[in-house]
């Protein structure tokens, strides 16, 4: 007789070791059935085919074994005493650790409503009893192959996002229709929280509006627009700091505006302000004032940025004029821009 406490048909090590630790890397199958003859037949067929087999005869034991071993696939009897297979499947799919595991139902029920119930509970497929091992193996092969490809795609996407982070770029995928963030790299999450205080699933309103404007422009009627040499870009500034959003590519279908991969980069012009100070012998505050003059800001705006009065800004600017040997804002800005561009070609007014 087979029992959950000690299942003699499976190697003892296979009962407790998680799937990645199985010698040889064979796929791990959890078979759940309350009929010993069914377990024996499936165990032998799966074992001969190179699978590592775990067994359970009750729903509670199946949940425990799945959480411990994280099998690659589960063969699950639909009708069992106590907790039936439908409830087992629902609980497995509700748990983040086991939600990804494909479930194939084994059922003697052939009514359409029962088969639909199996799929609605989280099953990916079903086989009908009496069990035919060759059919089970064929179905398993299809779903294990699909699961491997999904894991590989997820791994490649994860590596790509990590690569963007490694180069100082954060990335998010954003749904244009409602502004929901579908995924984000750790650096993107950190930047959004630091700049916008955003911790939820929605992008900041300014980013959502910018993306919607872009999508509307792309989808608007009329003659084709000339090819864009630069991707659409949004700049958010805080003092001399800047957070740039660039559209990289459409990451999903175009329904509702589509899903878009957006790359973010944080930069600061603090080094440029320092270069201005060194080039013209300015104090730190004078260099900041000149920086914002180059940016086209008036004294009132500069005062608001630096936390000073317009009168104080005017006094700093008079000293800047004297040190540069100029008399107007335009001349000061032109001289500063020409000098700084020699050291920072990317800097513009």
TrEMBL record:
Modified residues (4-aspartylphosphate): 77
GO MF assignments: DNA binding
Ranges in coiled-coil conformation: none
Entry keyword set: DNA-binding, Phosphoprotein, Transcription, Transcription regulation, Two-component regulatory system
Transmembrane portions of the chain: none
InterPro entries: CheY-like_superfamily, Sig_transdc_resp-reg_C-effctor, Sig_transdc_resp-reg_receiver, Tscrpt_reg_LuxR_C, WalR-like, WH-like_DNA-bd_sf
Response regulatory domain ranges (all copies): 28-144
Residues of the HTH luxR-type domain: 275-340
Signal peptide: none
Protein name per its UniProtKB record: DNA-binding response regulator
Organism of derivation: Verminephrobacter aporrectodeae subsp. tuberculatae
High-level lineage: Bacteria, Pseudomonadati, Pseudomonadota, Betaproteobacteria, Burkholderiales
């Amino acid at each position: 007789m087979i029992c959950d406490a000690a299942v003699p048909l499976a190697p003892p090590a296979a009962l407790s070791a998680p799937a990645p630790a199985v010698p040889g890397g064979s796929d791990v199958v959890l078979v759940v059935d309350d009929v010993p003859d069914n377990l024996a037949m499936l165990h032998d067929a799966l074992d001969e085919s190179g699978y590592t087999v775990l067994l359970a005869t009750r729903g509670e034991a199946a949940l425990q074994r799945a959480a411990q071993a994280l099998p690659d696939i589960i063969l699950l009897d639909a009708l069992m005493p106590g907790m039936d297979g439908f409830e087992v499947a629902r609980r497995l799919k509700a748990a983040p650790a086991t939600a990804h595991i494909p479930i194939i139902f084994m059922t003697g029920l052939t009514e359409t409503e029962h088969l639909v119930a199996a799929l609605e509970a989280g099953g990916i497929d079903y086989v009908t009893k009496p069990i035919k091992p060759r059919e089970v193996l064929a179905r398993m092969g299809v779903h294990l192959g699909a699961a491997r490809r999904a894991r590989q795609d997820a791994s490649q996407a994860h590596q790509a996002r990590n690569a963007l982070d490694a180069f100082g770029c954060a990335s998010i995928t954003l749904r244009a229709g409602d502004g929901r963030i579908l995924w984000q790299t750790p650096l993107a999450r950190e930047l959004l929280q630091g700049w916008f205080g955003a911790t939820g699933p929605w992008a900041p309103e300014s980013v959502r509006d910018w993306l919607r404007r872009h999508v509307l422009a792309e989808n608007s009627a009329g003659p084709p627009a000339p090819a864009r040499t630069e991707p659409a870009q949004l700049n958010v500034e805080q003092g001399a700091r800047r957070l740039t959003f660039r559209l990289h590519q459409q990451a999903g279908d175009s329904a509702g505006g589509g899903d878009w991969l957006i790359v973010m980069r944080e930069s600061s012009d603090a080094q440029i302000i320092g270069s201005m100070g060194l080039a013209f012998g300015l104090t730190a505050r004078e260099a900041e004032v000149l920086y914002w003059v180059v940016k086209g800001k008036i004294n009132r705006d500069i005062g608001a940025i630096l936390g000073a009065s317009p009168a104080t800004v005017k006094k700093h600017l008079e000293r800047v004029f004297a040190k540069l040997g100029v008399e107007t804002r335009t001349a000061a800005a032109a001289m500063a821009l020409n000098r700084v561009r020699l050291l920072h070609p990317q800097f513009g007014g």
